[in-house]
Design goal:
By secondary structure, the chain is α+β, with helices and mostly antiparallel strands. The chain has 11 helices and 6 strands. Strand 5 and strand 6 form a beta hairpin. Helix 3 runs antiparallel to helix 7, helix 7 packs antiparallel against helix 8 and helix 10 runs antiparallel to helix 11. The radius of gyration is 41 Å and the shape is elongated.
Length: 462
Amino acid sequence: MRLRACKTRAPGLSRRKICRILGNVRKRILTLMFGALAAAAQTPLTLKDAVKQALGRHPSLEAADARIQAAESRIGQARSGYLPRVQYMENLMRGNNPVYVFGSLLTQRQFTAANFDIARLNRPDALNNFQSMVTAEQLIYDFGGVKNGVRAAELGRKMTEAEKRAAELNLIAHVARAYHGVTLATQALEVAREALKTAEADLKRAQTVRDAGLATDADVLAVQVHVAAMKEQVIRREADLKVARAALNEALGLPLDTPHELATPLLPAPAVEAASPELRPEIEQIRLAKQAAEAQARSARAGYLPQIAFRAQVEADRQEFFNKGGGNWLVMGSVRWNLFDGNRTRQTVAEAKAMASAAAASERQYTNALKLELTKALADFDAATERIAVTEAGVAQAEESLRIIRNRYSNGLATVTELLRAQTALLDAKTRRLAAIHDQRLAAVEVERSAGKLNGDSNVLD
């Protein structure tokens, strides 16, 4: 179609120029079509939906799930101490060692009276022995060694579960920060664009006032500089928005250029309640670590005491792989007592006790740190709430001031400097109000996170 159109003639236009124009038009149409399709494919994303998406796919939680599975496997490893050990062994031996030959002939059921010959006893011929052996060993009692090892492994699994809950808390807060980072950047861009439109309108007004002889060219130039500054603000806000969107996708575990239409506005958060950090999974994790260290110490102390075990063995010895052989069996009960192991058990017990003491000290330290964290979050929330009230009043005052000065300037009763100062004051007031609301929303999330209550259905995410 393009080639056919390029062949058409238009007065005053060359064929190459017509083709270039048609190509540009086609690109614009395709861009608009793909943009419309992408926009239609987007569904509004609320903050709670974003949190649910992140909890369902974020790599940090996948890693936490893998650590829980690893902890589950360690429990199985510890419980294996209750089960018997069964082994199969196949040996091939050949030699003329007199003792080996004598014993092998007996186990092969091949010993005869001729083997009592003194010469053959002293200098036997070389003998093959294909030995097949199955052994089973069962621990009967070890004074709590395996039991406390299982207990320590179970506590380790609970620790990894608490670690995952802590990761979820941090991820929810991270998503909320990224989400409101986008809403803040979006509204800041709207404010900057509004300020630019106002500045452009004031430029026309300044030109009109100058044409009426009530202002000079210097006044118009000053407003033009102000318009350029507002354009720069718009460029900065657009860059901020681009980075904020990428940060949100990173928090959601998505490609950084994934488009979203955010549905939760940046509005003041509801009131939050004071709480204690006792529900924080980090505290539970430390307490479990202390209990696990104590269990490991009890398990290690069992090494000072004997182990009672049972062993059974079935054996087949043959001169040839399938022939000339015999079988035998053996059962035994045993008591093993490690009288000296180079102080290994002693040092293991000391290590476990030290880890329990460290966990107890960490609990005291971490509890105070979490209380401080919660106190700071509550203070930030209260301060941001007061800032919202102050900045809202400031925005109203700045808007009224700009209206009055703009009327005075139109009548030649105010200078352009006063007009520009009023515009800048209004932009600053609106920006500070947005920042106060943003800080309050994040402080509310931080209060819930510090108290260990933050979840995907929390009111602070509405």
